[in-house]
Amino acid sequence: MKQNYPKAEKLKTQKHIDLLFTKGKSVSKYPLRLVYVALEEGTDAGLQMGVSVSKKYFKRANKRNYFKRVLRETYRKNKSIIYDAIGEKPYAMMFFYQAKDKLSYQEIEQKTIDLFTKFKDAIQ
C-alpha cells in the first residue's frame, strides 16, 4: 500500500462532516480521538480523513499546525491498519488531538497505532 495522503482522501465535504458530528461513533486513546461514520455504498468516496486540533488547548496557530502535521503524518504512515479493517466500504473520519499535553512524535505515533487497532476491533 502506498503511504501517501492524496487529495481524494481529505475530508472536505460539508455533508460528510455534518454526518460525522450527528451520527458518528468514536474511539479514543488519550489524547487522540477518532470519530467515524460509514457512508452509503453508492458513494464513490472511499476513505476520507480530516484532522483537527483544539484551539481551546493550543491558542497559537503554529502549535495547532504542528500537531495537525504530526497527526497527518502518523495517519499516512499507519493507514494500512484502517484499510485492512474497512476493505472497500466508504468511511468518513475525523482525527482529533484533545489535550494540553505536548507529546513527542514517537508517543503520538504509538497512540495512533493503538487507536487504529481499537477502531479495527470496534467495527468488526
UniProtKB/TrEMBL annotation:
InterPro entries: Ribosomal_Su5_D2-typ_SF, Ribsml_uS5_D2-typ_fold_subgr, RNase_P, RNase_P_CS
Pfam family, one: Ribonuclease_P
Catalysed reaction, written as an equation: Endonucleolytic cleavage of RNA, removing 5'-extranucleotides from tRNA precursor
Enzyme Commission number(s) of this protein: 3.1.26.5
Gene3D superfamilies according to UniProt: 3.30.230.10
Keywords annotated in UniProt: Endonuclease, Hydrolase, Nuclease, RNA-binding, tRNA processing
GO molecular function: ribonuclease P activity
The keyword Magnesium appears for this protein: no
PROSITE patterns assigned to the protein according to its UniProt record, in alphabetical order: RIBONUCLEASE_P (PS00648)
Subunit structure: Consists of a catalytic RNA component (M1 or rnpB) and a protein subunit.
UniProt xrefs under NCBIfam families: rnpA
PANTHER family: RIBONUCLEASE P PROTEIN COMPONENT
HAMAP family reported for this sequence: RNase_P (MF_00227)
UniProt function note: RNaseP catalyzes the removal of the 5'-leader sequence from pre-tRNA to produce the mature 5'-terminus. It can also cleave other RNA substrates such as 4.5S RNA. The protein component plays an auxiliary but essential role in vivo by binding to the 5'-leader sequence and broadening the substrate specificity of the ribozyme.
Family: Belongs to the RnpA family.
This protein's name: Ribonuclease P protein component
